[in-house]
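Possible regression after last week's pipeline update?

I re-ran a chain I had predicted before the update to compare outputs. Posting the input and the new output here so someone can diff against the archived version. Not blocking, just want to make sure nothing changed silently.
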Amino acid sequence: MEHTSLILVVDDQIRSQQALASLLAPEGYRVVCASSGVEALTLARQLSPDLVLLDVMMPEMDGFEVCRCLRSDPSLAFVPILMVTALDDTESLLRGLDAGADDFITKPFQRVTLRARIRTITRLNRFRALLDEQQRVTTERAQLLWAIEHASDGYFLLDEQEHLQYGNLQARRFLNLPADLAVLPDAPFLTLIRQQFQLEPADAWATWPLPTTALRYLVQHDDTASRWLTVELRDLPEGVQGNRLLRLCEVTAQIEAEQNLWTFHSFMSHKIRTPLTSVLGGMAMLRRRAPALLPNDLAMLFEIAYNGAQQLNVVVNDVFNYLNVAVVAPPGDGMPLAEVAELVRRLGNELTLTTLHVSEACDMAAHRLTVTSNTVELLLTELLENAQKFHPTQTPTVHVSLGLADDTATIQVADDGQSLTPAQFDRLWEPYYQIDPTGAGQVPGLGLGMATVARVLWGVGGTCRAFNQPTGPGLIVELALPLGF
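New output (post-update):
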């Protein structure tokens, strides 16, 4: 017996309602009564009954019309309807069936027969509802699996040993696995990705698989471009197949957009400043002293202003072409390593760094970097500007050390300004994060500098790290750039 089944009795006669209710209530059914067709439709939409006992002969809206209305409502279309009628003719039965009735019972009815038929109908309706729910769940699961299989993000299920149990189509593509591969590689996830990707930042991957606030990147680079994926790992609820869900997201376009934004900002702030200073300085002196100037002095100031305007014109033209400047140089055309020291000195002069020391650990003449000179200039400008910006008096002592290690060139930029806390180190390579020593929220820039420095290096197969000065305040940032051969 379905003790929770709800039966809606529809009859305009109160005595008939009471008779049916007294018959059904002892059987454990919940009974609700309606005295008209309109009331029946309202209650049916509110309660979604398991069975409707519907009298045919009612004023205003008879049982046939109520039946048709119930069947036209998608939420009630499959509710069983048992029509109760005193009519015993074929035409009425056909009208009822045409209206959508499931069965008929004729007054006067046998109590045992009515109970048995109601019991059978409600039980069948429960089975039908269960099958419908199973079908719905099966359909939704199939739709979800289809969506996951065709998602733009990659998903892997990992077991306790971090072996791949399932991977959708995009996840397989990310790891260059065949789409029709029946059995996934029998190796831990970290083993698989280390064969194809550079894992950055190293500190975030050192704690794998523990949670971290830092983004974990997989970087895949060749001679012309880089591919970037972020990795997110989550524990699965108990009882679900697999131990962890791993999500891979393609973020190459985002990385390139942020890098271009930072490059433009750095280019504009650094390159335009110098020629514009010459133009404005020369014009200001001419304005103040033109009447008293000798011809030679006047010509000299005009020359300064003109040269500055020419430099500014070159820079403005470069601004429109800066996005076309490659980070990675063609083979054999990278920046000569021997020119880096002179570049550092020139940038120091332009930034008016009064105490700048450059040292080379060995002969650099025989080596070239794989990146362009413009890229090296932007990287060094960012580090030198930061050393100046975050020094308490903006007059840092900066030591730049150049060296060689295996197939990379190392550039260390050390200052005596601000040291960082562990929390600041955790977010140093995070986009749009700005270190604010004053807490005033007035730090200039976009907060893309250090993040893009790291991403430029990671994208060409280099690395970067930062640590505090061991014997006093200040920071040391070390870049490792790959050498060309």
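Follow-up from reviewer: compared with the archived run. The chain has a mean pLDDT of 80. Marking as no regression found.
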